Amino acid sequence: MAAVTWQGESSFSLNPINSPNYNKSGQLWSVDYGPFQINNILQPTAAGSVLGTNGVNQAFNGNPDANITFGITLLKNLNTQFGNNAPGYYVGSLKNNAAGNPINANAQKREATWNS
Q1: How many Å separate Cα 56 from the centre of its chain?
Q2: Parallel, antiparallel, or unpaired for β 19-22 and 28-33?
Q3: Which positions ≥6 away from 65 have C-beta within 8 Å?
Q4: Per-residue confidence at 14, pLDDT binned at 50, 70, 90?
Q5: What CA–CA distance (Å, rounded) separates 37 from 108?
Q6: Domain residues of the chain, as ranges?
């Protein structure tokens, strides 16, 4: 489960580019950091070596082991709550909207990868 998540987040990179997240207005609202793309807004306890000091669109410069360990802890908690659906929930909702379209296609893709 951790391998599927790491592969999906950064293709097994130890120092990937930190990814921006934009709201519907096109404004940057958060950044995902490191191998497991930890979001410091959604995970306010993430700090220090888990996030590094580089910002958006820069190479992760924190401790990859700390970032991966933090991500695996998140995944473990999701596994306790959602079982085998944890990889999908790592990146958001697995539900569909009123029109029947995925709320988060990445979550459904990650879930399909885990299931295969």
Answers
A1: 15
A2: antiparallel
A3: none
A4: very high
A5: 17
A6: 2-115
Beta partners for 78? none
Rounded-to-integer distance, Cα 115 and Cα 101, Å: 20
Mean pLDDT of 18-37: 96
Cα-Cα-Cα-Cα torsion 23, 28, 33, 38, nearest 10 degrees, comes to -30
Please say whether the dihedral angle defined by the alpha carbons of residues 102, 103, 105 and 111, taken in this order, is positive or negative: negative
In three-state form (DSSP H/G/I as H, E/B as E, the rest C), the secondary structure along 30-78 is EEEECCCCEECCCCCCCCHHHCCCCCCCCECCCCHHHHHHHHHHHHHHH
Asked if 84 contacts 68 with a C-beta cutoff of 8 angstroms, the reply is: no
Over residues 36-73, the pLDDT tens digits come to 999 999 999 999 999 999 999 999 999 999 999 999 99
* pLDDT value of position 25: 95
Residues 98 and 104: beta-carbon distance below 8 Å: no
Q: Hunting for tokens 């580019």 — which residue is that?
A: 17
Cα separation, 91 vs 89, whole angstroms: 5
